[in-house]
Amino acid sequence: MESEAMTSVGYDADRRVLEVEFTSGEIYRYFDLPPHLHAGLMAADSHGQFFAEHIRYAGFDYEHVDEDEALRTRRR
């Protein structure tokens, strides 16, 4: 993924969970995100702009993934 704001994006379509790692190293999960928004994010010319306009402030429940959890997830 080429983005000034994001390092990586993952999406679990069955659970409708979007996980975003930002260039700052912070990781967030957004819940009950419709598949069309994930598709739109991946197809956008500017991933950061699409994320800000359609996901970040759209009212989705989210959580910040702490460093310990991120390390455990990556080791699996």
Give the secondary structure arrangement, pairings included:
Elements: E1 6-12, E2 17-22, E3 27-31, H1 35-43, H2 47-56, E4 62-65, H3 67-75
Antiparallel strand pairs: 1-2, 2-3, 3-4
List keywords for this structure.
76 residues; alpha+beta; 4-stranded antiparallel beta sheet; 3 helices; 4 strands; 29% strand
Task: Provide an overview of this structure.
It contains three helices and four strands, in the order E-E-E-H-H-E-H. The longest helix has 10 residues, at 47-56. It is globular, with a radius of gyration of 12 Å. The protein is 37% helix and 29% strand. It has a four-stranded antiparallel beta sheet with strand order 1-2-3-4. The protein starts with 5 loop residues before the first strand and ends with a helix. The mean pLDDT is 88. It is of the alpha+beta class. It has helices at 35-43, 47-56, 67-75, and strands spanning 6-12, 17-22, 27-31, 62-65. A hairpin with a 4-residue loop joins strand 2 (17-22) and strand 3 (27-31).
Quick recap of the structure?
The protein has 76 residues and is of the alpha+beta class.
Helix proportion? 25-40%
> Main β-sheet, in a few words?
4 strands, antiparallel
* Distance separating the two termini: 22 Å
Average pLDDT, to the nearest integer? 88
Contiguous low-pLDDT stretches (5 residues minimum) are none
Number of helices: 3
**Widest sheet: strand order?**
1-2-3-4
Strand content: 25-35%
The total beta strand count reads 4
H/E series: EEEHHEH
Give the overall silhouette: globular
Structural class category: alpha+beta
Radius of gyration: 12 Å
